[in-house]
């Protein structure tokens, strides 16, 4: 096995060159670290007394206030909050720094889907020895499953979560007297009705998005990835995936999906003018709607995510990230103190006020949170729907230990179903093959 | 028909060929008066117009879009104005957003361009002159290395460069952007060719005969002759450094040292971040402000730029 994990170590890099460089320099740092690090509450207090500077890489906007509050509470501590890019950009930078063994931040924001590759190669500190295991009941199931990254360690504390819901433009639905769908079959019917009534309007936009597709599979009960250390199984042929592809294929065949890429200016435009009528996405969306689609304030509402079987309450997570302690970072006790403050302590309320969606049960269940009326949604208490969704997320989903790579080839494989006659199910099969091939090349034992 | 007779007298073997060859030459000579005013080709004019349109439409879009508010951007068509004319307001906002960080990025870019591109030009001029005018062993090897370096895309070297700078402890400092920018193989090659053509060896020899030191020969004789080439190379390196994205992207993580390219991208990325605020109007206005200095440089220096490009293309 050591030979195996060495190959793994060398393989899992975003950039092959880098990964090779890392092996050449010697993977010594990782070999002897089986003894779990442990930091006690007293160590944390001592570190806070002593003070020091923390480098935090994160793009989450509400952390700015949290860092300022933390500095105020602990005068000796300086938090250097660096936005090293959103998502992939930051992972590349992080991977570069880890390979160079220099400039690695003390705390880094990592999305749940991307944690596997860092956790498996032990580039993130297992926080069990820091007392993080005692916090398991504090977080909702989806995110907590996320920070375990398919293993038995705890590689970060959940920062935000994205239990899914259906955001819909009520004005458009009312105008054409269309019923808000509660099942995905009704969703297809509504898509037809809307596009017939207004050929410029679409039920939603989708040009192929790995995160969205995996979340939809998650809700449909599909579990395409099974991970056990370096043993991986990839299978997109289970019944759950079949339900998803059958339904989504109908929308693709009849061209009922707006060919607009999410987050583009066209997308913001479509959300504002009613040509994109719904979004099935994570509960972090309200802040983006409020700041990016101001002209449609009052038009939008939130409904529970449509179901695969009428009367069910299944949900899934879409997006969300944790704060982690990279193994090569310094000042672990202080770093943990900050992460705990931001994600399980006082920082959570600050971030919720700033518009972030929490991953902590206490906030999700608090009456103050649930009764918050959103002026953007015409006064609707949308958090009730989000909180219920969070509680209904199945916690047995896992991503691949190299999901970042897999997602990067999504558009070359599944993406074809969006632009050609390739069937969605065939696209998933091609994605599966590409993921299997890459996994085998990287030294994983991959079973189809 | 004097031409034919002279040719015929030159020899029997070549008798036929010159006859055939001279015919078109004579005909073209008759046309010569028209050559001063080239014939207009409708096809070429249309093609040029299309290319012009293709290159100007994005600029037009940029200028028009910079006059719109964030809401205006999404409610109006891309190639016409929205009701509100918000250009001045956008410019003010661009310079004041996030505590005026845009000014900082602008100054960073200027620093990288002045020191990086300026240094690159200076080194290219020195090197090109030396390679063109001094014979020394290993010149061919230098030539091979330079040509090879032109062929290697900078992107391919970025990661090894990062690891090297990381070990030197220079990442996240302006040096990490400036030092790699100092090397411009293409600029060196251009200066080399240009110096070979533009400086007559006799002139250098004359100067040396008069007792001028090598430094004086370079600065007072060679340098003035090289001016058009220097402008060309400095424009090249300036554009490359001003627009450089990938190098600072991997080298610099501290937003205080970002150049404009990275800074604008970070504003753009805000729109794709959960909880982030889309500021497309500021990204667009910022982009417009970013290209203004480059356009100005081109307009001011285009005379030199053109003569510099053409130099060395014709062997006299």
UniProtKB/TrEMBL annotation, chain A:
This protein's record includes keyword Transport: yes
InterPro entries in UniProt: Bact_solute-bd_prot1, SBP, SBP_1_CS
Position of the signal peptide: 1-24
Gene3D superfamilies: Periplasmic binding protein-like II
The protein's name: Sugar ABC transporter substrate-binding protein
Pfam families: SBP_bac_1 (PF01547)
Family assignment from sequence similarity: Belongs to the bacterial solute-binding protein 1 family.
One example of a Gene Ontology biological process annotation: transmembrane transport
Organism: Streptomyces longwoodensis
Assigned keywords, A-Z: Signal, Transport
Automatic annotation (TrEMBL), chain B:
Record flagged with keyword Transmembrane helix: yes
Chain ranges of the ABC transmembrane type-1 domain: 106-301
Keywords, in A-Z order: Cell membrane, Membrane, Transmembrane, Transmembrane helix, Transport
PANTHER family found in the cross-reference section: ABC TRANSPORTER PERMEASE PROTEIN MG189-RELATED (PTHR43744:SF12), ABC TRANSPORTER PERMEASE PROTEIN MG189-RELATED-RELATED (PTHR43744)
Domain of life: Bacteria
SUPFAM superfamilies (UniProt xref): MetI-like
GO cellular component: plasma membrane
GO BP field: transmembrane transport
Record's bilayer topology term: Multi-pass membrane protein
Protein species of origin: Streptomyces longwoodensis
Taxon lineage: Bacteria, Bacillati, Actinomycetota, Actinomycetes, Kitasatosporales
Protein's name in the database: ABC transporter permease
Compartment list: Cell membrane
Family: Belongs to the binding-protein-dependent transport system permease family.
Name of a matching Pfam family: BPD_transp_1
Main subcellular location of this protein, as a coarse class: membrane
Transmembrane domains' residue ranges: 41-64, 105-129, 141-163, 175-196, 217-242, 279-301
């Amino acid at each position: 096995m050591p030979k195996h994990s060495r190959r793994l170590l060398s393989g899992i890099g975003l950039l092959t060159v880098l990964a090779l460089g890392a092996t050449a320099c010697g993977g010594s740092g990782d070999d002897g670290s089986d003894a779990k690090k442990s930091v006690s509450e007293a160590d944390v207090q001592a570190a806070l007394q002593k003070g020091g500077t923390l480098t935090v890489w994160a793009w989450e906007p509400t952390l700015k206030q949290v860092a300022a509050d933390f500095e105020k509470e602990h005068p000796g501590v300086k938090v250097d909050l660096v936005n090293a890019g959103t998502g992939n950009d930051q992972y590349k930078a992080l991977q570069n720094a880890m390979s160079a063994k220099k400039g690695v931040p003390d705390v880094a924001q990592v999305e749940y889907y991307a944690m596997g590759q860092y956790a498996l190669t032990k580039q993130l500190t297992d926080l069990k020895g820091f007392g993080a295991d005692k916090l398991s009941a504090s977080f909702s199931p989806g995110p907590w499953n996320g920070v375990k990254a398919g293993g038995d360690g705890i590689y970060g504390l959940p920062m935000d979560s994205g239990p899914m819901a259906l955001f819909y433009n009520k004005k458009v639905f009312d105008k054409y007297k269309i019923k808000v769908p509660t099942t995905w079959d009704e969703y297809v019917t509504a898509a037809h009705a809307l596009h017939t009534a207004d050929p410029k309007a679409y039920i939603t936009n989708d040009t192929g998005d790995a995160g969205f597709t995996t979340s939809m599979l998650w809700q449909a009960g599909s579990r395409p990835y099974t991970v056990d250390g370096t043993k991986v199984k990839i299978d997109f042929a289970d019944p759950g995936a079949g339900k998803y592809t059958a339904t989504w294929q109908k929308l693709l065949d009849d061209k009922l999906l707006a060919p607009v890429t999410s987050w583009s200016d066209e997308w913001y435009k479509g959300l504002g003018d009613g040509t994109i009528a719904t979004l099935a996405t994570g509960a972090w969306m309200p802040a983006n709607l409020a700041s990016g689609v101001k002209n449609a304030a009052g038009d939008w509402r939130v409904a529970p995510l449509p179901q695969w079987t009428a009367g069910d309450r299944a949900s899934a997570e879409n997006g969300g990230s944790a704060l982690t302690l990279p193994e090569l970072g310094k000042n672990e006790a202080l770093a943990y103190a900050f992460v705990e403050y931001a994600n399980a302590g006082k920082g959570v309320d600050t971030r919720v006020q700033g518009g972030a969606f929490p991953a902590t049960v206490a906030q999700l269940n608090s009456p103050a949170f649930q009764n918050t009326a959103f002026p953007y949604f015409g006064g609707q208490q949308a958090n009730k729907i989000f909180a219920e969704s969070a509680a209904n997320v199945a916690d047995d989903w896992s991503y691949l230990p190299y999901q970042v790579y897999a997602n990067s080839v999504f558009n070359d494989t599944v993406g074809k179903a969006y632009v050609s006659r390739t069937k969605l199910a065939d696209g998933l099969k091609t994605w599966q093959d590409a993921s299997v091939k890459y996994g085998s090349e990287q030294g994983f034992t991959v079973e189809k | 028909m004097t031409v034919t007779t002279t040719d015929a007298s030159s020899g029997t073997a070549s008798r036929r060929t010159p006859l055939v060859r001279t015919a078109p030459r004579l005909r073209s000579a008759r046309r010569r008066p028209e050559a001063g005013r080239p014939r207009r080709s409708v096809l070429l004019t249309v093609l040029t117009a299309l290319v012009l349109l293709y290159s100007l439409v994005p600029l037009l879009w940029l200028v028009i879009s910079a006059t719109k508010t964030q809401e205006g951007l999404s409610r109006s068509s891309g190639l016409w104005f929205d009701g509100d004319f918000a250009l001045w307001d956008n410019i003010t906002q661009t310079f004041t957003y996030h505590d005026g960080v845009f000014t900082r990025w602008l100054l960073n870019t200027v620093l990288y361009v002045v020191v990086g591109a300026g240094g690159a030009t200076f080194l290219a001029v020195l090197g090109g002159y030396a390679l063109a005018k001094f014979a020394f062993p290993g010149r061919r090897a230098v030539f091979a290395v330079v040509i090879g370096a032109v062929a290697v895309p900078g992107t391919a070297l970025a990661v090894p460069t990062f690891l090297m700078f990381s070990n030197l402890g220079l990442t996240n400092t302006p040096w990490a952007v400036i030092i790699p920018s100092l090397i411009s193989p293409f600029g060196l090659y251009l200066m080399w060719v240009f110096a070979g053509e533009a400086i007559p060896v006799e002139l250098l020899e004359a100067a040396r005969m008069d007792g001028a030191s090598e430094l004086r020969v370079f600065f007072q004789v060679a340098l003035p002759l090289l001016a058009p080439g220097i402008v060309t190379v400095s424009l090249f390196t300036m554009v490359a450094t001003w627009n450089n994205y990938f190098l600072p992207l991997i080298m610099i993580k501290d937003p205080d040292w970002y150049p404009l390219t990275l800074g604008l991208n970070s504003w753009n990325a805000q729109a794709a971040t959960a909880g982030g605020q889309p500021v497309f109007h500021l990204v667009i206005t910022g982009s417009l402000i970013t290209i203004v200095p480059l356009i100005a440089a081109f307009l001011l220096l285009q005379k030199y730029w053109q003569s510099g490009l053409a130099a060395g293309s014709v062997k006299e």
